[in-house]
Structures are given as structure tokens and as C-alpha cells.
Amino acid sequence: MPYFRILIPTIPKALTKYALFILLISFSNCKQEEITYEKEALSKIEILEKLMDKAKSQAIDVTREETTLWFAKEFLKFANWDETNNDAVEKLFGYYEKYETDKVKLADELPDFERKKVIEILDIGIKNLNDLLDGTITRKAAQKIDWQNITVEDNRLVNKGRPIFLHDYFSKTVGAPLTDTNIYNDHLGAIYHTGSHLYEVNKDRPSNPYMLNEDGTFDEKLLSYITEVPDTNIGFLLLWNMGVPDWMKKKEPEIEKGRSLFTGFDVDNPLLREVWSKVIKKTGEVTKGKKVTDLGYILSNEPHWFSEKGHWTYKFLEMNSISSYTLNKFRSWLSEKYKNDIKTLNTNWESNFKSFEKITVEIPMDKAKRGTPLWYDWCRYNMDRGIEWFTFLQNELRSTNPEADTHIKIMAKLFVDDYRSHGIDYEALTELTSMIGDDAKITGGRNYRSKKPEKWEEKYAYYWSELAHSYDFQESVSPNKIHINSEGHFLSTSGWRELDTPIDYVRSSFWLATLHGMDASMSWFWARDADGSPEDRLEGELNFFDPALAGSYAGSANMQPHVVNEVSQVMYDLNSFSEEILALRDQRRPLRLFHSETSAINKKHHMTEHSELYESLYFEGLAIGFATEKIITKQDHSNWDVIAVYKTEFVTDNEFDALQSYLDKGGTIIIDSSNSLSKNEYGQLRNKQLSSSSGKLIYAKENNLGSFKKLAMISVTDNTSKIKLSEDNGSINKSCTWRVTENPKGEGYIMTIINLGKTTSDLKISNDNNTSFSIKNMLNGQELDKSFKLSSKGVLLLHISESK
Question: Which intervals of the chain form a coiled coil (predicted)?
């Protein structure tokens, strides 16, 4: 008690006894307060357990309460560890810049914060069971997942004869065995992965060049990480592209030129390809038919090759230069693109190269060159070499494992952001692999690095558009594939997390993502060992190349029992109504927004403009789709009513011809102005315009977003349904996104509504023929009036029955 010893001499003798008494009482109260939270939680655990017994005796399913109980007990244990290891927790808070200055306070407060949140989730569990027992609410039994008997179909995961949605945590307690039921269970998820002893050091990861020794033999220890995975649970395998062993660097000095943040080598290097071929073939061979690969081989972790000056990736050595192999492949690509006509290239580039073999290019490139033919050619080539690299990986894998499913953990922001020097063709890679893959985020608040409010904050409770926009695009490209978010960032990102994350945000974000196509997700991240301590990588001195990992623990889900419990609760609800969710999300997409990577490469703000169009249409009750040259060429045109072309000046001749062919076959196109489609990829004016031919070609009369939106909506002939939703939230902007479909299990309609706005909305449901109908909240069995309120971040699943 150092403070007590210092304080006593400063107190006058007459007050010493009184002061001592006050100090002892204060100290006692402080300790008593700590004990009280734990005692209160333990008392409520007893209450919930008794209610569960009573409910079971009445054949009421208590799966949801079993999960709440498990998290409550775990986090009481975690709180005690955090209290005992205050210094370690303080250090971990200090690794995250946002919390660094308050790390002492946060570490001191964390144990009681966790205990209070345990009490909150127990209170919710107790209330729900009491309401069930007295008949105030009803609910559907949870669909508990049998992790060892999940089958993978073309566009859905199936368990016990019903579709399901899966959730787990990525990078889960690295070092813990897959058989540890404290970590792999019904509450946290039980998706297996290869390499249960993976660490941050590249050489300790399987499925990368370190697996192959210089003499051509395989490292048996790394191989065992793959071969010794129990063949029981569904899982995934990640190909780790981070680095290469020293013997390869000595043999090939250029092997790291043109590396990127998570692809630590030159993908064009011949030695690298030779080694990777052997590694990936061996990987496919020894894992063929194993359940651990049923959720696919992830071909890469967050690939990108940003190659413009001033980008944040430069300081992490991304594309600081390119190798002679990359340059020579670029020369060959240009020769083919220009049909070996160096004069035309020189005219476009304003250069004077004597031949294609003499071409040079400065990488990283000055972003002032955006919109020039040089910029376009490099960015398009950079994307094409990315496609070629992943095609190579997939082909090598399937040479030994022909049935291997694949996907790529691509960051969704690479599609929705305006940057285009990153080498990722979102459409081509979505089309290439047999599953849709991504690393998509939703954030519940502002990036702490932002010096001013972010644009979405004006209208919305959280940042939803990156995921919705990118997912609708991917689902348009590949509508019949399973969709896996292999590193979900809904609970935290490097720039956002909130220690007291609202549970309605958690529910809303997972519901939204699933509605847009997500079949399985692995949230970032679970790092608690069973005793409450953080995983091995987070102990001792942290020095990671990964700029985000060191600070990932502070403020994460590992400190928030209410958050992880709510993730499990919303997954129970989604799985209880999986057929209804699939019916809502697999609807026809009657309105297609035309997307051109050509314009996205050339224009500074193309994707920003298109995101604004997408947002304006998002609250009208229909599933939005996209059209591209490939979609128009390959897919059935009856899948949509109209294609909308908006602020898309630059298109290739092939893109233009695809649109004209669609009109020739009777299609409908609306276009914002004659400026769209007016230029080719090099900014040269096109000498022809679209002709209506056998179809309908409609130009907007007014060149603004509002009028174009109205034109798009009236052009949709197959609108949502005769059920409509009207909204009043006190502003001119709608905030409730909704979908409705015929009930897949019988009469009536199924409707879901999510309030993305910052305020409560007054809603009203109506139908076209003005017949009477009833509305039931499917999540709690309660009846709703036609007019009702929905709070910010609120989620509803409704059954609408027409009166007979």
C-alpha cells in the first residue's frame, strides 16, 4: 500500500485515526465493488441455469442461452486474468495508437468492464427465457451446426438437409490444437484450417516456398502441419505468399523486386514459379479429398501491387521497383496489344522508343499520369499479370487435385475505391475461382486517423456501402457460387474499433452481409487462449512486419463478451430462417448498372460517382445488379430488364460492341448523356454511337443524379412486388433498406428491413391492391401494425399474410 504509507505523515495527528478509518473503508469498498460484479454475474448464471432447466422441461430450445452461458463463464475467467496481469494488458493497449495515451486507465478498467458486459448478456438471456415461458414471445429453435457433416453445394452450404451460414474467427488462437474444444466449438465456431502451429514468421508457415529445401526435398515439419490436420471438420487452406528462403534469394537476386505487402516476391520470377509449382502441387496432392479444404484453398492473402507514387504501401516496400522479368513481360504485352506497331505506341505515349524491346517504364508511376495512355497500359497490364499469376496457381493446384475449390482473399475496398494501380481485376478474379472470396469490412464508426467526419456519417449509423456495393457486383459476376469472407472486418479494423461496440450494430452488420450473399465468414480475430491469456504471438516484445497485427488485440472482440455473444446469436437467427434469407437474397436483379474497368482506370473519381448512383438506388426495395462486357456476353439477358450507363466516358471497343449487341437482341439501355461511351481506353473520341436497333435506347433528359435515378426506376418492368414500404425519418434521404419476396414455404410474403440511418424511422407497409393483411415479426412471433417504428441499426424479418 505505497500510497497509504506516503499519505499518513501528511495528516495532522488529531485526524490520523479518522483518516486511517476513511482510507480503510475506501479500500474495502473498492475491493468489495470488484467482488460484487463477479458475484452478481455468478448469481445471474444460477438464475439463467434454473430458467433453462424449466424451459427444457417444457420442450423449449435453449441453444441460444447455452451460448450466452458459455461466454459468460469464459469472460469471467478472462476478466480475472486481465486483472492479475494488468501490466501485460496495459502493454497490449499501448500497441494501438488510438488507445496508447489511455492505456493505464483502460487496463485498469477492463476487468470490471468485461464483468459488467457479462451481466448485460445474462440479463438479456434471462429476459428472453422469461418472455418465452410466459408466452410474451415465441421463437424458432436454433439450427445447431454439425461441424463434421457440412456439404458444399454449388451456391450454398448444407447441414442436416437445410442451408446454413457459417461463422468463425480467423487466425484463431495461433498455437492451439484444432481439437481444443475450448476454442473450436459451437459458440466460437469450429472451422478447421491447415497449420495449427502457425506463427507470424514465414518459415513456420506451411504452403509457401519455405516448404521446399534447396536440394528439392520437402520440409517434413512444415508438411506435417498440412497432413496431420484431423479429417473431421470442414475447413480451409491458405497459401501463404509472404516470403522466400535465403537460398532462393542467393540464386535469384531479383526475386524480391516488385514485391508487395503480402506477396513478398516477384510473381514473374522463373525460379519462384518453379518452386511454387512444386509446393502447390504437393499441397494439392496431400490434401486431396480432405474436409479441411471443403471451404477452398485461399490462393492469396490480401493481394495487391499498388504502383503509384505517394501510396501508403510504398513504405512497406510494395512495388518500389520492378524486375527485368516483369519489364520484359510488359514489353511482350504491349507488343501484342499494339500488334507490334511501335509508332502507334509512341504516338499514344508521346515517346520515341525504337522497338518494343527498348521500352522502359518508371515504377512507381507518377499519379499525375492518370488518364494518359501510358497510365492505362500499365494499370491494365498490372491487372492482367495478376490474373495470369492466379491462373497459374490454380492450374498447378488442380494438376494434382482437379476438384479443388479456390477463392482469393481480396480486399473489397480495391473495387469501390478510386485507386486503380493495384493490379486487381475484381471481376476477372471473381470469375476465375470456383468460390467467391474477399476480405470485406463494415465499420461502426469513423477511422480514428481521419481528421474530419467521413462522408457516410452525414446520413448513416455505420459504413455499409463498401460491402454492399462490392458484394452485389461479385454476386452479379458469379451468381451461383458460394461466397466466403475469409477475414471479416465487421468487429474491428486497423482504423476503427469501439471497446463498447453496440450489439445492434453487430446484428445489423452480419444480417446485411448475409443478405448480400455471404455464406461463411471468419472474423478478425480470436486471440485468447483457454486460460484467458493472449496467444503466443501477442506475448513478449511484438515486432511484426504486418502493420496491423501488433495493435489488433486492444479493443477487439476478445475484450467484449456482449459482441461475441451477439455474433453467435445473430448467426442462430440467420440459420433458423436460412431458406427465407436465401429467397430474399437470390432474387432476380432487374436493374443492372454498367461497370467498366476502363473508365475506373482512367478517371480520378469514377468509383465515387458510381457509388453515389448505387447508394441512391439502394433503398428502393430491389436487388441491384451489375453488367459488364463479360456479363452481357456470357449471361442470359432475361436476368434483367435494363442496363444503366452512367458517367462512363472510357470504354474499349469490345465493351461498346457488347452493349450494341445487347440492343440488337432487343435489350433496353438508359444512358446519362452522349459523353458516356464517347472515348476509347486511350481517350480518343469514338466515331460511332449506340443505335437502338431492335431494342430501346433512352437518353436522360436532365444530366443529374436525381433524374437519372427516376429514369432507372421507371425502366424496371419487374419491380419488387406488390408489397411496398414507405419511410419517414425526418430527412429527405431514406435510410431503411428492404427486400420482399414470396414466402418459399407457403402463402404470403417474407420481408426484411434494416435501418442504416442514425435515427428511428417511421415505416408503413402497404400493398398495391389495398386488400387487408397481417404482419408478424418472425424473430419473436409478435404481431405488428401496418405502421410501426424501427430504431437505428434495427433489423426485422417479417411474414406478411393477406387476408382471405
Answer: 38-65
* CATH fold label, 723-802: Immunoglobulin-like (2.60.40)
The torsion defined by the Cα of 592, 596, 597 and 601, in degrees rounded to 10, comes to -130
Strand order in the sheet with 150-152: 150-152, 157-159, 162-164
Concatenating the DSSP letter of every residue in 412-470 gives THHHHSS---S---HHHHHHHSSSEEEB-B-BSS--TT-SS--GGGGTBSSB-HHHHHH
Domain ranges of the chain: 159-540, 591-715, 723-802
Question: In angstroms, rounded to a whole number, what is the distance separating the alpha carbons of residues 794 and 774?
Answer: 21
Q: Are 69 and 146 in contact (CB under 8 A)?
A: no
**Burial group, residue 685, by CB count within 10 angstroms (0-12, 13-18, 19+):** exposed
pLDDT in tens, 473-484: 999 999 999 999
Instruction: Give the whole-angstrom CA distance, residue 337 versus residue 377.
Output: 9
What is the C-alpha separation between 272 and 256, in angstroms, rounded? 10
Note the Cα 444 to chain centre separation in Å.
13
- Look up residue 528 and give its DSSP letter: B
pLDDT at 58 over 50: yes
What is the rounded CA–CA span in Å between residue 618 and residue 591? 11
Give yes or no for a contact between 506 and 570, defined as CB atoms under 8 angstroms apart: yes
User: What confidence category does residue 195 fall into, taking pLDDT thresholds of 50, 70 and 90?
Assistant: low
Q: Which fold has domain 159-540?
A: TIM Barrel (3.20.20)
The DSSP output letter for 665 is T
Using only C-alpha atoms, the chain has a radius of gyration, in whole angstroms, of: 29
Q: What is the pLDDT of residues 575-628, one digit of tens each?
A: 999 999 999 999 999 999 999 999 999 999 999 999 999 999 999 999 999 999
Q: Identify the CA nearest to 446 among candidates 123, 212, 98.
A: 98
Whole-number Å distance between alpha carbons of 554 and 95: 8
Cα angle: 527, vertex 558, 181; to 5 degrees:
60
SS3 label, residue 553: coil
Q: How do beta strands 406-409 and 436-438 pair?
A: unpaired
Strand, coil or helix: what is 522?
strand
Give pTM, 2 decimals.
Answer: 0.94
Q: Which three cell numbers stand for residue 397?
A: 493446384
Measured between alpha carbons, how far is 392 from 639 in angstroms, rounded to an integer? 32
The fold for domain 591-715 equals: Rossmann fold (3.40.50)
Question: Distance between CA 799 and CA 384 in Å, rounded?
Answer: 47
Helices (H) and strands (E) in the chain, counts: 22, 24
Please give the biggest Cα pair distance in the chain: 104
**Do the first three CATH levels of 159-540 and 723-802 match, i.e. the same topology?**
no
Whether 136 contacts 123, CB under 8 Å: no
Count other Cβ atoms within 10 Å, centred on residue 626.
24
Cell for 752?
426484411
Strands 761-767 and 723-728: antiparallel
Cell output for 280:
502447390
Query: How far, CA to CA in Å, does 498 sit from each of 78, 366, 434, 446, 612?
Result: 19, 37, 36, 10, 27
CA distances from 164 to 167, 225, 256, 524 (A): 10, 29, 42, 21
Give the span between the Cα atoms of 36 and 653, in whole angstroms.
Answer: 73
For residues 736 and 757, give the distance between their C-alpha atoms in angstroms, rounded to a whole number.
Answer: 7
The helix/strand/coil state of 73 is helix
Grid cell digits, residue 334? 504491349
* DSSP 8-state secondary structure symbol assigned to residue 499: T
